[in-house]
Design brief:
This protein has about 130 residues and is an alpha/beta fold. The protein has 2 helices and 8 strands, in the order E-H-E-E-E-E-H-E-E-E. A hairpin with a 5-residue loop joins strand 7 (about 110-115) and strand 8 (about 120-125). The chain is globular, with a radius of gyration of 16 Å.
C-alpha cells in the first residue's frame, strides 16, 4: 500500500503579535524566517525554519480576528536540546524563564517548558 501522505510540511499557529512571536522563536530557539507573505484573505504569514528538520512553523496574524487565547494544555511544540543546563541559562539570559521543570523522566530524558507569547507551551527535551 502506498502512503497517502508523503511528507509533513508545517504547523500553523495563529498569534496576536507577529513581530513579537517571530522575535521570541528567533532569540529563544534560534529559528530563522524562511519567507513572509500575505494570504489572499489578508492573513500575514511568516514561516520559520527549524534546525535539523525539514518541517517549518507557520505563524499567522489575521487582522480583525481578535486576540489569541490558547487554552491550557491545548497543544505544544517540542524541541530537542543538547544540554538542558545550557538551554535554561540561555533562556534566562534572554528573559524567558522556564515555566515548568526541568524534570527527569523514567527513560532518563530531561524535559522542561517555556511559554511563548499568547500562551503556547514549548517543550524542550534533552535525551539521554
Amino acid at each position: 500500500m502506498s502512503a497517502v501522505v508523503c511528507k509533513f510540511l508545517h504547523t500553523r499557529m495563529r498569534v496576536s503579535d507577529l513581530d513579537k512571536s517571530v522575535e521570541f522563536y528567533n532569540k529563544v530557539f534560534g529559528l530563522e524566517v524562511s519567507r513572509r507573505h500575505e494570504s489572499p484573505r489578508g492573513s500575514k504569514l511568516v514561516f520559520l525554519t527549524v534546525p535539523n528538520s525539514d518541517e517549518e512553523i507557520e505563524l499567522t496574524y489575521f487582522p480583525g480576528s481578535g486576540t489569541v487565547e490558547v487554552q491550557e494544555d491545548l497543544m505544544h511544540l517540542a524541541f530537542e536540546v543538547e544540554s538542558m543546563t545550557e538551554f535554561e541559562s540561555h533562556a534566562q539570559s534572554v528573559g524567558v524563564p522556564l515555566s515548568d521543570g526541568p524534570t527527569t523522566s523514567s527513560s532518563g530524558s530531561i524535559f522542561a517548558f517555556v511559554d511563548a507569547p499568547d500562551g503556547y507551551e514549548i517543550e524542550v527535551i534533552q535525551r539521554p
